[in-house]
Automatic annotation (TrEMBL):
NCBIfam families: yfcE (TIGR00040). Keywords: Metal-binding. One of its GO terms (molecular function) is hydrolase activity. Residues 1-141 form the Calcineurin-like phosphoesterase domain. The keyword Metal-binding applies. This is Phosphoesterase. It comes from Thermoactinomyces mirandus. Belongs to the metallophosphoesterase superfamily. YfcE family. Its cofactor is a divalent metal cation.
Length: 165
């Protein structure tokens, strides 16, 4: 299973679709601030949430399940992610999630906290606090460890952000 985690595309639908075409994921998670009409988002298996800059009517939070993994997906602005990851971790625990995917800060991170894997893929439009525009790819193969890789928008890896269980 391969999941593309992306956020804060801010209207860059052509770039978003190029990334989806390059990665060819089984599922796409967009953590909000897509800033375009819903019809311009990638077709196929997609979980999308509303960011603070979005006008389309999509959920503020969603749960996505695949295999034994349960994802909590939100943009993060309602969970004060610019100040602390504690509120989003608590919310993910409330939902029974293994993984929390969020955006809003435009800063890529991947860390495990109290059993919850927290993933912010960064931004494919406007990075903050990091020099590259980024997205993340989560891969889980049978009898293999969970792996999260980060990439620049041109597809080149960002190894210093990689995570493996």
């Amino acid at each position: 299973m391969k999941v593309l985690v992306i956020s804060d595309s801010h209207g860059r639908t052509k770039l978003l679709n190029e990334i989806v075409e390059r990665v060819r994921p089984d599922h796409v998670i967009h953590c909000g601030d897509f800033c375009t009409s819903r019809q311009n988002l990638p077709s196929g298996s997609l979980t999308v949430v509303r960011g603070n800059c979005d006008w389309e009517t999509v959920p503020e939070e969603q749960i996505f399940e695949t295999g034994s993994l349960r994802f909590f997906v939100t943009h993060g602005h309602r969970h004060q992610v610019k100040y602390s990851l504690l509120p989003i971790r608590y919310r993910a625990q409330e939902t029974g999630a293994d993984i929390a995917c969020f955006g809003h800060t435009h800063l890529p991170i991947c860390e495990k906290d109290e059993g919850i894997l927290l993933i912010n893929p960064g931004s494919i439009s406007y990075p903050r606090g990091f020099k590259y525009r980024t997205y993340a790819v989560l891969e889980k193969k049978e009898n293999q460890p969970l792996k999260v890789s980060f990439y620049k928008v041109d597809g080149s890896p960002v190894p210093e952000l990689a995570y493996e269980e």
